[in-house]
């Protein structure tokens, strides 16, 4: 019961020490309290300015044409040319940018959905079943968490060359499917979200094991699935090194590798600046939107799981 | 009973629940169905996809790297006949270790970690405590605003900051100039700070959310008891709250270390920009990239990779050890 109250009303859970309701607490002088409140919120506002600065600059810079980009101050608007910039971006090089965006979605969304499903199945099996060598296998998974990912890129590249998957979509999709940390999380989630009694009841009713997983375990693990999905999604959307290693054909690039290539010529050809800036904005805005939405889901998912 | 473990099981607090796995209640004797072959088959089916892929993209590459690190490519004859592979024993390892660039790259990341990790972890801890304090307003907004950089891919973040470091484009430099100062973000003495700023911007908010989630799981009674005892907010934070989220802190430091020693994108972009002191082998990963993909010296690159991996594993042990000692002491 207390858990329920805490889970649903987390932010308000702690009465402020200065509130009149609290008799046991030491009271502060009001002036002092006001000062501390200003300091706390002032510091937080300062930190928020710092985190928001680059993105707001990007937003403004994307509206400028090439001349104003350098002629006007960073946070001042010049002629608002956002539409022209966008048109240029999407038309440039036969619309290669849109293709990159699509590739990123493929690598991140499809890859992470599949990877999260694999993680949840594995974590669930580790939690709910006993089998030979279970803890040894799990230790192997945990070891995988600690292996620096950049370390295996070179041998993976050479193996992929032999297997003929270098410079194909599989070169980025296959590695994205393996997420040892996700398996660890899935096991923890399975312990928390899926009571053994429910599975027993399903078994008594005669449901097969896989059916029980698909019909009962998986839905109960939905919040965990979303969390793991978010983790692998950001990891693969961030995966720059892997893309740089595995891909030559620019039609297979994810958006970040494409922007890197454009950025590499800005110093010789400054007109690429506008492309990189507008391209970065277009790549980032949907991410922020998705993140805000998913984060809410993620949070409520956690709370719901806690109450169950 | 399932509830408390779920509360600590958040993605963030998943870190805070090291006690989780290993204590599973699986396979308890149950009434009704005989826990026989069906379950073993189901378990095998559920874990097979993961382990097949795990073998293909983790175990096999590591094994291959081990094998490759023992050989050296020699061009045969006058360079017409291609190359042949000769056994080199530990030769690649000694070559890497005696390479001044490789050694320097470790010195670079050591300095980088020494500055970056305390600043970033300290900053996110302080922010988490501020958001958690009873005085904070607009908690949701602050959490979201501070978390926002995590939604931005590292490469794009690096590019944006590079532009913010570039004279002519940067409003920051305009402000500094307007205030009568001057600053060169790429100067040899400043570029490390520029890089740390880049990383800290990306990770502070993320870790703040982890710490905040862990703080939310601290039992309310404990905090109240401290307040009743007359502890002020600062004292409660330092003496009660931080020790209570020790596991989350240790886990975060661990992941930060493993990530920081692999740093690639930030120095790569700074190097592309022509920052004079960031060369093409500034960090170990850049060195590996250059050895493998520019010079095609796969043996050397593999040996260097494995040494970096060994450093990562050693660091994990040290952090876990120190962390356990700290957790036992508080």
Structure overview:
The complex is a heterodimer of chains A (308) and B (330). Chain A has 308 residues and is mainly alpha-helical. In chain A, helix 2 (30-61) crosses helix 14 (272-307) and helix 4 crosses helix 8 (180-193). Chain A is globular and about 75 Å long. Chain A is built from 14 helices and no strands. Residues 1-26 and 300-308 of chain A have low confidence and may be disordered. Chain A has 2 domains: 28-53; 97-307, MetI-like (MetI-like fold, Orthogonal Bundle). Chain A has helices spanning 2-8, 30-61, 66-71, 82-128, 134-146, 153-163, 170-176, 180-193, 196-204, 209-220, 222-238, 241-246, 255-264, 272-307. Chain B is mainly α and 330 residues long. Chain B has one domain: MetI-like fold (Orthogonal Bundle). In chain B, 68% of the residues lie in helices and 3% in strands. Chain B has a two-stranded antiparallel sheet with strand order 1-2. In chain B, strand 1 (71-75) and strand 2 (83-87) form a beta hairpin. Classes of the chains: A mainly alpha (308), B mainly alpha (330).
